[in-house]
Specification:
It comes from Pseudosporangium ferrugineum. The chain is an alpha+beta fold and 372 residues long. The chain is built from 4 helices and 16 strands.
Length: 372
Amino acid sequence: PQPLRDVVEVALAKDPADRPTARELLDMLLGHQPVMRPAVAPPVPAPAPAPAPAPVRERPTVTTGSRDELLVAAPGSRHAAPEPLSVRDGRVRGHKLLAALAVLLVLAGLTTVGLVVRANAEPRESVLTGPSPDGGAAAGAPAPAPGKGGTGSAQPDRKPAKPGSSSKAAAPKAPPAERETPVPLEPSGGEPIIQDPLDQPGQWLDSEIREQQARCFTSGVMRAERVDRGTYQCVGPDEDIEDDFGVEVTTALQTAGSCAAVWFHWSEADGGQVLRVCQDEVVVGADMPADRTVYGRVAFKERIALKKSTRVHLVVRDGAAQIFRGGRFAGEVELPSDGPDTGQVRLGLSVEAVDTDPPYAVTFANVDIRSL
């Protein structure tokens, strides 16, 4: 058979009429038909008359039938039946089939390229599409309103860009992330105002109200107790302390229903504000001569066990009462903006529970009051 190069040249002939049919191309590749090269027409002299029309070449008709019949009834079947193929002949025939398939694929590729080039060469009308997936309503920004003409196309309401200004649209801003409130740190240092270990009578004195069976005494620790609901203040220093300050003290709740109390901004005539430390919570409020008010409550994550020492630090600053328990921030309660902002500090007992049995008692030790 002719080389594959000759078959490709014939298949890619410039004149479509000179290209072989698929059947002829298959016969050429299989060696059943010689390669038919298109004849090159000789140059025609200018004065010569027009040549007679070339005779029309008729292609041999092929009888159609089933797929197996077409493969068997190839043009080469008109000759004598071929001898059985050897193994080598079978390999040659396989290579020819692969070559034929390659040529067909080349022809199909060229046809596809031609169609694509032709399609790109034709002018197309612009198409109005919806919003881009990278912006607009799909990206969280509000979609522009339709134009005044009543059409459905989106008309952005923007002014022409000034010379030198950027023409890029501003990217949609992401929603601001929620900021976590920083946890206040327990203050340290400061100027000492009152310090007392409370292991013996000193700045705090022993006192008693027999009618209420309430008393406060010091013996190793300062103990406040009573047999009924209510409050009892131990007699202590009468020095006025101004904001900002801190009161740090160790306390232990001796019986159920008992709350250790720290009064601040206190005066005998007007009363003052108070921090009550109970088993499950702390309460910040005001004890006035004719009224008692609760500003807020802070629940403990871990309950205070009875008869267990707990270090409590009350910090009054920036218009709030901050509570630290064992060096850790427990919470804070806002104080009234109209004051008071100065007064005495008192220690004592507060009982408000109605489902516990008397007596009630708390103890204190190592009080440290500092100006912050």
